[in-house]
Amino acid sequence: MAEMIISDSLEVAQSRNPHLKAYLDRYRATTQRTPTFIPVPDNSLRDMASIDVIYPVGDPIFIHINLDEFGEKIYTPIEPNLTDEEDLFMDEVLNLILAVAADYPPPENDEVLENNLDEIYKKKITIGTANKIKGSTATVTPELNARLLYNLKKNVLGLGPIEPLIRDSNIEDISGIGAFDIFIVHKILGTLRTRITFGNNDKLSLYSKRLSERVGRPVSDKTPIVDATLPDGSRLSIVYSSDVSARGPSFTIRKFADIPISMVQLVKYNTLSAEEAAYLWLALEYGQSIFVCGETASGKTTVINAMVPFIRPESKIFSAEDTPEVRAPQPAWQQLVTRERGAEDSRVTLYDLLRTALRSRPNYIIVGEIRGAEGSMAFQAMQTGHPVLATFHASSVKKMIQRFTGTPINIPVTFMDNLNIALIQ
Questions:
Q1: Running DSSP on this structure, what letter comes out for residue 339?
Q2: Buried (b) or exposed (e) across 191-202, using 16+ Cβ within 10 A?
């Protein structure tokens, strides 16, 4: 979707976005309060005892965070919504657009798709005094036009109801647990409940199916669990069947930052000390093997991405992952991803990729996450002189060794000295 404008004051934001003004008028009438407008959220949000703030994501999306009647922080996206009647009208307009879109060549990317959508919309939709379908065209009132186009793009190009969450760069994770419980992990405020709902589990099931088909990993009762990568690089996990997910279909999206966090930022955030960062720099300069260990969502991949620029720029990098999260600035970067679907003999595992790495003469091998047999191949690579960077789930050095020497990895304890550095998050 096109780049959005960030408002720098509440007055300017309301003048450009009538739906925001309408929302605030309703909120003031109910609470006799006006939320504080914050152009860019910062750590001061943590210190607010009775938080009541609005910040812009980019026109026409705004975020309102306040306390509900039980004192729980609630995250509310403010966007141009449609009534039930307008929603049905949008479906009819979409059918008109799809009928014409069939004559266009398949779009190469989302930018081309958006341009095609804009072009067809202008051809088929005219501004009029009523919202009506007339054969293969439609008229739309000026009041509905902008809201209609926004919602069309949100559903065709974006991720529908959760698109505002995808757009908010302050969000790390999105979790849907049944139709009514959509949670986020906010970078500043931690876990928050949102006011987004899907209405019922049937609608969420349909949404999950469409989302999985869009990323080329369709879910079904036969294949109820799917892991995939969204077009922006975010990690997607869907649990579809009610036999597996008791409260209805569920999904988790771990968002992919547009710009990786640098080592300087990690030092600023006190994730690492300046001395530790300098030590890692020297270690990578001299081809040391480093495993970044920690619990789930502790920032292991973030640290790996911050370390990769320390590897010499002329080095050949070989990365092997289930979902592509590692980003290397080196020109000679061979990025490989597993293939888990299809016939048994056509699947490609991390073990297969690491075995291939040994024939590719890399200067550094990066493994997204070691979980099983690929661990033994990673140690073989280190034994043959190939330095390895990897992430691993372990909360201490002792537990790391226990996991590596136990089933299913089964590394002899005498091999552990091939690993130079274990960084525990």
A1: B
A2: ebbbebebeebe
290 secondary structure, DSSP code: E
Reported as a single tens digit per residue, the pLDDT across 163-183 is 999 999 999 999 999 999 999
**Amino acid at the residue 15:** S
Task: Evaluate whether 318 touches 360 at the Cβ level (below 8 Å).
Answer: yes
Distance (Å) of CA 120 to CA 95, 96, 388: 12, 9, 50
Is residue 199 within 8 A of residue 160, CB to CB? The reply is no
Quote the CA–CA distance of 160 and 182 in Å, as a whole number.
Answer: 14
pLDDT score of 260: 84
Query: Which domains are seen in the chain, by residue range?
Result: 84-157 (no CATH), 171-258 (3.30.450.370), 263-424 (3.40.50.300)
CA–CA separation, 113 and 111 (whole Å): 5
The span from the CA of 283 to the CA of 420, in Å, is: 9
Burial string for 304-342 (b: 16+ CB within 10 Å, else e) reads bbbbbbebeeebbbbbbbbbebbbbebeebbebbbeeee
Alpha-carbon gap, residue 364 to 313, rounded angstroms: 11
Give CA–CA dist 250/413, Å, rounded. Answer: 39
- The pLDDT, as a whole number, for residue 340 is 75
Give 3-state DSSP helix, strand, coil % of the chain, rounded to 5: 40, 25, 40
Q: Tell me the average pLDDT across 337-344.
A: 77
pLDDT band per the 50, 70, 90 thresholds, residue 322: confident
Dump pLDDT digits (tens) for 352-403.
999 999 999 999 999 999 999 999 999 999 999 999 999 999 999 999 999 9
Of the chain, the percentage scoring pLDDT greater than 90 comes to 84
pTM: predicted TM-score of the whole model, two decimal places: 0.83
| Strand residue runs (E) in 230-386 | 235-239, 250-254, 290-294, 317-321, 333-337, 364-370
Q: Write down the pLDDT at residue 4.
A: 64
Residues 308, 302: Cα–Cα separation, whole Å = 10
